[in-house]
Design brief:
There is one protein chain. The protein is of the alpha+beta class and about 525 residues long. The chain folds into two domains: about 80-410, Methylamine Dehydrogenase, Chain H (7 Propeller); about 435-500, no CATH class. It is built from eight helices and 28 strands. The protein has helices spanning about 1-20, 35-60, 85-90, 90-95, 400-415, 435-460, 475-480, 485-505; strands at about 100, 110-115, 120-125, 130-135, 140-145, 150-155, 160-165, 170-175, 180, 190-195, 200-205, 210-215, 220-225, 230-235, 240-245, 250-255, 265, 270-275, 285-290, 290-295, 300-310, 315-320, 325-330, 330-335, 350, 360-365, 370-375, 375-380. It is globular and about 115 Å long. The chain starts with a helix and ends in a 24-residue tail after the last helix. This is BING4 C-terminal domain-containing protein. Pfam families: BING4CT, WD40. Keywords: Nucleus, Repeat, WD repeat.
Length: about 525
């Protein structure tokens, strides 16, 4: 009996997985007379069913792990769960991922994970650099540059990382040896790396955004924002567009192909302090000096939700599963499903020890871990459900060997994308470009349809502004005044004329009159 119940449950689960990949209801064959078309539709439905079953089997075989979240019982609340209580309940390997590094003399610290999430690089404001294999708690390299360090970022793999120091950007290898000094990047404040394009982007004190190709060393672009100092920058992982936060409350989106921003959004009532993008690139989160955290729809450039932080949000980050982390002073808040719907309370909260001020947040890829760089060192927090449980070795392999790393580096160089493909809408790349005449005709037809619809909806004359320099003639004023009325009636008149023309078509002459010329047919006797 128990085996039958278990088999029924497995069958129900498999059916649910198959239904997830189906393309909706089957096509109705009623009313289709053509046997050939009916047979083709039946064959397509069979192919769709087989594709759904195959996709469900692939999910069952290749995606065996499932992410889990904290679940409260009774009157409990997950936001009151402390890190100590979570560490006590998890296994030994997971408990080792939660730790604190006390470095009070060289902070505040910023950090960055490599793409696989295995290695961590951290940098202190007073020149301290370190690389560690954080899962094994093994220090790989430690260096003191004796200069102000503002940001650090891994390049295409864990062998190289870039550091934004006081005057220039420096590139170091895994052993701490200085490889390059990028003197074109003057007084950098923030760094970002575009892995698919091998571009290193930096923004400096003067508000100049620079792109440099790390594979060839060529300076791709230099753009002046004309909006003053900007220390807030984040890359959209969907289209590689760079988002910059400014002191006037706006966020501008940049591409190396244009000297002007692709889009400008007025996000906050004060200076923007943090920007973060979702993995799919559909939502953007901004924080400002006004203490508000806003979620934006990047496709429509409109706000979706607004949250209030305890103090000014210093840093934001979004995990692979959509969890939002907000750092405000010494308090860390993690919100679940905050991007898709308005939430009332956070999923988790954490207070840093000794009132340390948070500086930077970074979710670890493929792990339920959040790294917090603060004024007294670095803290690693357990956040259940934040990381993607299944990884693709063609994208990032946390267990890759030296040979696999070399192969991946060669493949990434061969698959390198040109910077000209960085656009706001990547779906336009590869589409057929219309000619200039076709574009003009398409725009004019759309404009005409929109004008007709608006005129029909309004159905009344519109007040026209008076113009000068010969453009305010009585005839033009009269024509503009009744433009909507004329446009509204024009469609009806066109329909009526078409109907009359169709009704007044000359009937074809019968076969008996074929021998008589058409001009003399009217003289033929009837009957």
């Amino acid at each position: 009996m128990e085996s039958e119940i278990a088999s029924e449950k497995d069958g129900t689960k498999e059916a649910a997985v198959v239904a997830k990949y189906k393309r909706g209801a089957k096509t109705s064959l009623k009313g289709i007379v053509n046997k050939k078309v009916k047979r083709q539709l039946v064959e397509k439905e069979v192919l769709f069913e087989e594709a759904a079953v195959t996709a469900s089997k692939v999910e069952q075989w290749l995606l065996p792990s499932e992410g889990g979240y904290l679940e409260a019982e009774g009157l409990e609340d997950t936001r009151h769960f402390s890190q100590e209580s979570i560490v006590k309940e998890v296994d030994v390997m997971s408990a080792r991922k939660a730790f604190d590094l006390s470095l009070p003399d060289l902070g505040p610290y910023v950090q960055d994970y490599n793409r696989s999430g295995r290695y961590l690089v951290l940098a202190g404001r007073k020149g301290h650099l370190a690389i560690m294999d954080w899962k094994q708690a093994r220090l790989i390299m430690e260096l003191q540059v004796r200069e102000t360090v503002r940001d650090v970022k891994y390049l295409h793999n864990e062998l190289f990382f870039a550091v934004a120091q006081k005057k220039y950007v420096y590139i170091y290898d895994k052993k701490g040896v200085e490889i390059h000094c990028l003197r074109d990047h003057i007084s950098p404040l923030k760094l970002e790396f575009l892995p698919h394009h091998f571009l290193l982007a930096s923004v400096d004190k003067g508000g100049v955004l620079r792109y440099q190709d790390t594979s060839t060393g060529h300076m791709v672009a230099q753009h002046r924002t004309h909006l003053g100092r900007s220390g807030v920058m984040c890359m959209n992982p969907y289209n590689s567009v760079m988002g910059l936060g400014h002191s006037n409350g706006s966020v501008t989106m940049w591409s190396p192909n244009m000297s002007t921003p692709l889009a400008t959004i007025l996000c906050q009532r004060g200076p923007v302090t943090a920007v973060a993008f979702e993995q799919a690139g559909l939502q953007m989160v901004t924080g400002g000096m006004d203490g508000k955290v806003k979620v934006w729809d990047v496709r429509k450039l409109v706000p979706l939700h607004t949250y209030f932080a305890p103090t000014t949000p210093k840093s934001l980050d979004i995990s692979q599963k959509g969890l939002l982390a907000v750092a405000s002073g010494s308090k860390i808040e993690i919100w679940r499903d905050a991007l898709t719907s308005k939430q009332v309370k956070p999923y988790m909260t954490h207070r840093l020890a000794k009132a340390a001020q948070a500086q930077d947040l970074s979710f670890c890829p493929y792990e339920d871990v959040l790294a917090v760089g603060h004024s007294t060192g670095l803290s690693s927090l357990l956040v259940p459900g934040s990381g993607e449980p299944n990884f693709d070795t063609y994208v990032a392999n946390p267990f890759e060997t030296v040979k696999q790393r070399r192969e991946a580096e060669v493949h990434s160089l061969l698959d390198k994308l040109p910077s000209e493909l960085i656009v706001l809408d990547p779906t336009q790349v590869g589409a057929v470009q219309r000619s200039g005449k076709e574009n003009v005709l398409a725009k004019s037809s759309l404009r005409r349809e929109a004008n007709i619809a608006n005129a029909v909806a309004a159905g009344k004359p519109v007040a026209v502004k008076h113009k000068t320099k010969g453009r305010d003639k009585p005839s033009k004023r009269h024509r503009k005044k009744f433009t909507n009325v004329i446009t509204a009636t024009r469609a009806k008149i066109a329909e009526q004329s078409a109907a009359k023309a169709k009704a007044s078509q000359v009937k074809p002459v019968s076969e008996d009159n074929d021998s008589i010329p058409r001009a003399l047919a009217r003289f033929k006797r009837k009957g």
